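Researcher: I'd like a structural prediction for the single chain below. Treat it as a standalone chain; there are no partners to consider.
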Amino acid sequence: MQTGEAVAPAHEVASYRFMVAAMILGAAGSMIALAAFSAHNYRVGPYVMEMKVFPSTSGMTELAVEPVRPVIPTGFAEAETHLGFVSFRGTLNGLVGSEAFVDEVVTVVTGGPKALAESIRDEGEDAFRRFGLRVGWLTLAGGGAGGMAIALFGMKARRILQGALGGLILVAALGLVAWQTYDIDKFDNVRFRQAGQAAPLQGG
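Model: Treating it as a single chain, here is the predicted structure.
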């Protein structure tokens, strides 16, 4: 080391390391919180949809239809719709309204995953907003919990805020990438299929 070279005090180096650790654990805590608690039911037009976001190795969107009515085909489909390391899952698990909606839903579901995805997109503005709020507070809560683990060692309450910030930065970045690259047309050549069935299941 050259004479006169400035050296950061040991306590500043330790503080920086604790901050970085809090943000890393906060990011991890946010992803764990989303995987564990993001699933929730929302009304989307005539549908009751369970929406979920979770970490993954590729940007997938999964759609599933549960047996809500005997005349509505069940099944699931998935497509690589966006870039990034989060995936989305939407499960149709109920209907709201009169039986008059059933024929409409049958038409949409038998039209294939893209028809259902487009219907959810067109009807789901309020649901997406509420789901986004849920993702936001789960991100902050999970990030804060990760930062708390460092706060217990560093005895600094600000580590909780740093953890929340780390989670918020990661989730916001992943969400922005997914939003900018999302392509619903990836469902064009996808059909609903049953669990364990390799061949596509045509809705009709």
